[in-house]
Amino acid sequence: MLSEESAAVVRATLPVVAAQLDTITARFYDTMFADRPELLDGLFNRGNQRSGEQRRALAGSIAAFATMLLEHPDERPDMMLSRIAHKHAAVGVTEDQYVIVHKYLFGAIAEVLGDAVTPDVAAAWDEVYWLMAGALIAIESRVYAAAGAEGGRTWRTWQVVERREETPDAVSLLLRPLGDEPVPPALPGQYVSIRVRMPDGVHQLRQYTLSGEEDDGLRRVTVKRVADGEVSALLHATVAEGDELTLSAPFGDVALRDGDAPLVLVSAGIGCTPITAMLGHLARTGDPRQVLLLHADRDVTSHPLRADMTRLAAAAGAEQVLWYERDAPEGARTGLMDLAGVRIPEGAQVYMCGPVPFMRAVRGDLIRAGVAPKDIHYEVFGPDLWLGAA
User: Using alpha carbons only, how large is the chain's radius of gyration in Å?
Assistant: First the structure.
């Protein structure tokens, strides 16, 4: 809870700070990486740095957290914090790194805002930062403990036992753990980080959903090659059967929950990966829940895991509705996903993954169809630019 004195200062200065947050976070990252270049080796995603996505996500999370403290002073935004904590755990963020971030972030605030940062303003925003950091540290500690990965030690070696080309730009890798240590459990919908050494010697991490799990302990990731995606391009070009990869423990707060409410599973493009994992779990466990599967893609040849989705949907007793923008086969619909004429089960829990514009549009349709906003759970690949707005 923010103190009354700090709340008054934050309320008065939030418009000024929020207006400059993009500049502040840009200065923060530039200064921190100039002084601490080792942080780009195996921790921060330099692709997101180049695109500005990480900067915008940080700015959005700070503004959203401060706003929530003011609007709901007796509550803590655990949903937002949990999402950030899982992202942090997936790359091995540790408690001491919050001190480093504090140093450079508040240096950037002072540099950008100048004389506007009085001692009272600095103290109030310092309180906001440590409330957020302290909550994240506590959540991350629990997340690490649940994964058996204390102190950010999440990594182990896996071997590729099969490589399967799903589409011209998506490949699945079936992986077997090496060593005798127990494998942390994975919930359907969670992701792992893959750490690779780039040609320039710098290690980079990317998160990929576990798109399937086998009874013998094998796990599958499905990687889409993206424009300017240095890790996905490397994995597509170089990884073969027999190679070894370094993976984190599974993380992610958007995982299929137990219950008896009907399920609506919604995806587009490579967003089908967590949905396929959920279907696999439902099929393996004989879960009796009513399931409606909705997926949209450009065409059949662009649809990753299409055969698996269809097979698992049948095994789980799911109703399946597909949309293709072109060359839709018999039984599928043509065009973008449109829920007109689709009966959404009453009281449904929705799990959704795909491009953010797609999810925004479909989320609106689902709410208009009677789904409660709290019952719509979504996963975003990369920094969550939807924080505070979803």
Answer: 22
pLDDT averaged per 10 residues in sequence order, the chain, 390 residues: 91 92 91 91 80 80 88 81 90 92 94 94 95 94 86 86 96 95 90 94 94 88 92 96 96 94 97 97 96 98 96 97 96 96 96 94 95 92 52
Residue range of the domain that includes 368:
263-379
Task: Single out the residue in 103, 118, 147 at which a domain terminates.
Answer: 147
Structure tokens at 180: 């005798």
What would the 3-class secondary structure string for 13-75 be?
Answer: HHHHHHHHHHHHHHHHHHHHHHHCHHHHCCCCCHHHHHHCHHHHHHHHHHHHHHHHHHHCCCC
Instruction: Give the type of residue at 136.
Output: L
Are 238 and 300 part of one and the same domain? no
**Domain CATH for 197:** 2.40.30.10
> Active-site residue numbers?
98, 140
Secondary structure, 3-state, the chain: CCCHHHHHHHHHHHHHHHHHHHHHHHHHHHHHHHHCHHHHCCCCCHHHHHHCHHHHHHHHHHHHHHHHHHHCCCCCCHHHHHHHHHHHHHHCCCCHHHHHHHHHHHHHHHHHHHHHCCHHHHHHHHHHHHHHHHHHHHHHHHHHHHCCCHHHCCCEEEEEEEEEEEECCEEEEEEEECCCCCCCCCCCCCEEEEEEECCCCCEEEEEEEEEEECCCCCEEEEEECCCCCHHHHHHHHHCCCCCEEEECCCECCCCCCCCCCCEEEEEEHHHHHHHHHHHHHHHHHCCCCCEEEEEEECCHHHCCCHHHHHHHHHHCCCEEEEEECCCCCCCCEECCCCCCCCCCCCCCEEEEECCHHHHHHHHHHHHHCCCCHHHEEEECCCCCCCCCCC
Domain-ending residue, one of 130, 147, 164 = 147
The pTM assigned to this predicted structure is 0.90
Q: Is residue 386 part of a domain?
A: no
- Let me know if residue 135 belongs to a domain: yes
In a domain, 27, yes or no: yes
